[in-house]
Amino acid sequence: MRINKIHIEPTNFCNSNCSFCPHDKMKRGRGIMPFDLFKKIVDQIDWKIDEFVFSGFGESLLDPNIFEKIKYAYDEKALNFTIILGSSQILLIKKIRETLSGRIWIYELWPLMMKELLLNEPIAENIPQAPLIDKVFSSEKLCNILGKLPSILSPEEEVLYRDVEDYLLKWGGMPALLELNEEERWKWLKDYEYTYLERDLSDLARLSDLSPFRKFQKLTALRSGGLLSYSEIARDASISVDTARRYLEYLNISYQVILLRPYYKNITSSVIKTPKVYWLDTGLLRQIIGFKDGVTGQIYETMVVSEILKWVRTSQRDCGVYFYRTRS
Description:
Oligomer: single chain
Structural class: alpha/beta
Number of domains: 2
Low-confidence stretches: none
Number of strands: 6
Distance between the termini: 76 Å
């Protein structure tokens, strides 16, 4: 009998604490599949496998040799196509090196965009599939694009757009929040903040004392939408400038914040001039700074920039996103 699908559990170690997982009831020990055993399994396969799945009750990316295993299976022609869905993005960043060079495609999953929230509504058939900004990338003149838009929205569409905008401004785009009530949403956002600090950040930075980072994280959130001065934020957080740069890099590669460079015709100037910092998700921003009601210009600007960047990255547009600053 020809086997078309193989499931392999590289490890049953996990750094999450999902309520639905039976980890605490398991009697078996924790461990990682030896690389020699994995090679032995692959060497017995002399045909193309339709699906080669790395899964189980553990986080596959906690296996220090996971990419070497994928590379071996790929090079031995046991794999046609592989998809790795990993929640441990930070672990992915740390471990993916030369191992899979030329063998991988990386797709980023961002928080939900306004367009995705709109298309989930009953009158979605009247809503364009792509947001307006997508048309800006076409060769059509901007005046022609804007001229084709209706001068007013129908009453139903206006209510829908405003409701979705209000939701995004308050809760952000984390999919898990959609089915929760208000109290549960704040609880989820709070737990996410702690999970990020205790799990992801510890995996990335191995910080023994999280207090300085917590302070830096909140100070960065309070500056969302503003120019980023490393010396200023380092002084306020009582850390060195080098530590501030390192902490911000942690926030950046873990999809907490995004940096926008100023637009200059001179590329060097754009790189070295002061950037602006934005929190990626407005719901998490509100949770961190403790601002649960109302909308400020800072929060609105953060939402707009986040929406633009999420669409550009999701659609994989080959372009940069900058801010334009006039001189007084």
